[in-house]
Design a protein that fits this description.
Residues 58-127 form the Transposase Tc1-like domain. This protein is 33% helix and 18% strand. By secondary structure, the protein is of the alpha+beta class. The strands form 4 sheets. Strands 3-2-1-4-5 form a 5-stranded mixed β-sheet, sandwiched between helices. A 5-stranded mixed beta barrel has the order 7-8-15-14-9. It has a 4-stranded antiparallel β-sheet with strand order 10-11-6-16, with no helix packed on it. The radius of gyration is 33 Å and the shape is extended.
Length: 542
Amino acid sequence: MIIGFRAKGGSISETAEFVNCSRAAVVKVYRAWQNGTVQNQRRGKCGAPRAIDDRGERRLRRCVRADRRATVEQLTTKMNQGATKSVSQSTIQRTLLRLGLRSRRLVRAPMLTAVHRRRRLEFARQYSSWTSTEWRQVAFSDESRFMLHRTDGRWRIRRETSERNHPATIAGTVQAGGGSIMVWGMFSWHSLGSLIIVEGTMDQYKYASVLADHVHPYMRIVFPQDDGIFQQDNARCHTAASVRAWFEEQQDEFTVLPCPANSPDLNPIEHLWDHLDRVVRAMDPQPRNLAQLATALESAWLNIPENTFRDLCDSLPARLAAVRSAKVLMVFEDTDVKYLCFYFINNIKIVNLIYSVSKSASFSSPVLVADYLISAEDNSDDNHVITPMRWGFIPSWYKGSYEEFSLKTNNCRIEGILEKPTYRGSALAGRRCVILADGFYEWKVVSNKQKQPYFIYFPQEDGPDVFCRENDSSSESKEWKGPHLLTMAGLFDIWKTPKILIWADLIRLNDDIMNNGGDIRWQVSHDIVEFGLLFSYWCRSC
């Protein structure tokens, strides 16, 4: 700064005042720079080196990803196992903060099965062409329950350490929240509907009364051209036979929009329930009984700003676009599963075989893949195609040597696909496929550290001869049932060129790996390899 300020014409006094140093220091530094002897290097860091180096940080990050709920004490124990130098819990805590691994609350989301995800995707594709104009003709409805007293951890306070038991810092709790109220409401882009206080729990008879007294008049007034659409979820009271019969009688006046199960994010009225809860919790004084709570909810409902519910209706195209972009990997069923294996129908038999021609990087293999994953157009059908893909996964963001990188991903790694950045992008994007092959080879140490290749394939009844080069003998398989392809799970990435590169590799699992995430072990018992069946939904969702 001294040299730069002086070079711009600043005097010695002005430079000293700007840098906040003495005039002598300015003269000394500037003269050294003129003589070419100024030292621009930064002074070396002082103090002892960190107890956890870069390699230790990577190990700590892997420990966290292997068990997200592990405490600092548990992580410290894992880090000190087999280490030459132990570290303290405070060191682990500081390292976690430096790595950005802070303690957070779990994100709550509905539990989605493979069927739920598929139906969500079908719904998003079916209405992908709808714009805000079409969604403005939809009236959204749902129920919600509000408790008189609720402490959900949303509120935070500031206090001193000694004020932990101060009355102002304590959130009182009562059994069952002190009572609750169930409400039903509906709205559209045009106006808010009624907010109905439901006595007890909503059943089909109460819901039929709500439909006749509130839904039918609302649809007639708001949509006089009989072009309105009524949306509801799949609650039992909504799908009862009597309710379905009532909707069939009204089909000339309005239609019903089915909603996929466990999809509150596709119903914007959920945001209005959150708005009501925030408004009521901000009231001073708070409602003291259920009657006051009902009055507060009705008042908050009537005062919802018009732009609030209109913006929610206009957000539906973006919501469906997000579902389509996430495809089938919106929510993982087993985020703790570290390895993937393959879904086989029968046991796999090991045959002593030496002669082989194996696939390697740059070779192509046939794969079964959903058409919309590789098509340039946004197809809405679920057609599957068989296409060749190049073996040896290369992520689309890689800019180096393709041939060298494909060799690195040709074999499996101990990291899970969600841990390694190479595979994480394709896994989260849902770029999955089923690799079709006759079988694959695996080496096994037989004796004197010699390796014997084994050919793994589906049982066949009557097939080609099996040759052994060591003793020049042959034997015929007696289980031939016709060609039975071996299906393997794979990930792929798509290049803009367009070149399609593929990664797929078998991962051998035993019960210890499935349950405890242990080391990979190759188990052979009576010439049968046991495979875990984690992967039953892969083929259905790719």
